[in-house]
Design goal:
Structural class: alpha/beta
Distance between the termini: 30 Å
CATH class of the largest domain: Alpha Beta
CATH superfamily of the largest domain: P-loop containing nucleotide triphosphate hydrolases
Number of domains: 3
CATH architecture of the largest domain: 3-Layer(aba) Sandwich
CATH topology of the largest domain: Rossmann fold
Order of helices and strands: EEEHEEEEEHEHEHEHEEHHHH
Shape: flat
Helix content: 25-40%
């Protein structure tokens, strides 16, 4: 009989499943799930598993419906989504305050908002900031970018109060996924929140104050207050996937301006009565922020167009004719495509 469980860790091995009775076991996907490039379970997924006596692993036979996903464009495919985590309540974006990348932060916020979860920003490594003025100016820049509704916290491993402030964002019986590029201090933050050395970390390089990539797995870590957190490995590729709502949320100031444009389908280029362009020209909206918004909108539209083209091509492909058994082997070399 199939039993219910949750994927609590994904690494280079088989998914680790925690059953409802607390038992943890490794599992492989049933052939029926992966056949034809089907969906695979991700961390946070609730699954049904069989545990055959004669088998050395459990078998994931069903992935239960997800109520939330963190999804990006698959960097290895032309126009396919890749789900990285499922069934969480909050996304925290981590950036080092001594090396904030505002353009990347904008993209991370779009992906975070697109999930529909609560969103917060944590600026790590405050102890490495050049001085108090630089730290304050960076914090103000980030606050201006994310807007008043998104919490922005500055944290230092040497400041227990700042760690407690981050922990307070994670309420009991909720799950948070922690995203950010490699070396921003996510693993160190998880260790501080959990109160133990659960995640492996490496020393910061003295030359530039940057950490080295350590985490290679996605794992749910329980916290003392009953909350849970997932340290996501540093994700280099952050391709957008169906991110229209995330764009409007991450760039809420531009979305509000667009409501005042003369034409509802205004592209904010050369159309008359464009409120967004007027805001740029008057200095109300920075040209850099508008350029970032335009680039992300263009990326989203281009991906949408490629998906539509792919669908049409699949519809227009002629049916595959079965070859007779006597066909030469050389004619049967290429079967199917990528899985």
């Amino acid at each position: 009989m199939a039993m219910r469980g949750e994927v609590v860790k994904l690494d280079r091995g088989f998914p680790l499943i925690r059953l409802e009775d607390g038992t943890q076991l490794r599992a492989e996907h049933a052939v029926s799930l992966v056949k034809g490039g089907g969906e695979r379970a991700v961390v946070g997924d609730e699954v049904m598993v069989d545990v055959p006596e004669e088998h050395d692993k459990a078998i994931i036979v069903e992935i239960l419906p997800r109520w939330r996903t963190f999804t990006r464009k698959d960097p290895t495919e032309r126009a396919l989504p890749q789900v990285l985590a499922a069934n969480f309540d909050q996304v925290i974006v981590a950036q080092p305050i001594n090396d904030v990348n505002l353009r990347r932060l904008e993209r991370e916020l779009v992906l975070a908002f697109e999930t529909g979860a609560q969103v917060a920003v944590v600026l790590t490594k405050a102890d490495l900031a050049a001085n108090f003025q630089q730290m304050t100016e960076t914090e103000q820049q980030v606050r201006a970018l994310v807007g008043p509704e998104v919490p922005v916290l500055v944290m230092s491993a040497q400041d227990g109060a700042s760690v407690e402030a981050v922990r307070a964002l994670m309420e009991p019986d909720t799950m948070t996924i922690l995203i950010g590029r490699s070396g921003v201090g996510k693993s160190s933050l998880v260790n501080l929140l959990a109160g133990s050395q659960l995640q492996q970390t490496q020393e910061v390089r003295e030359a530039d104050g940057k950490g080295r990539h350590t985490t290679v797995s996605r794992q749910i870590v329980p916290l003392p207050n009953g909350a849970r957190v997932v340290d996501m490995p540093g994700v280099r590729g952050l391709g957008l996937w169906e991110a229209e709502e995330g764009l409007d949320a991450a760039f809420s100031d531009i979305a509000a301006l667009a409501e005042q444009c003369r034409f509802r389908d205004c592209r904010h280029q050369n159309e008359p009565g464009c409120a967004v362009r007027a805001a740029v020209e008057s200095g109300q909206l920075s040209p850099q922020r508008f350029a970032s918004y335009q680039a992300l909108v263009q990326e989203t539209h281009a991906l949408k167009q490629r998906r539509e083209e792919a669908r049409w091509m699949q519809k227009e492909q002629p049916p595959v004719r079965k070859r007779p058994h006597s066909a030469k082997r050389s004619n049967l070399k290429k079967r199917g495509g990528k899985r």
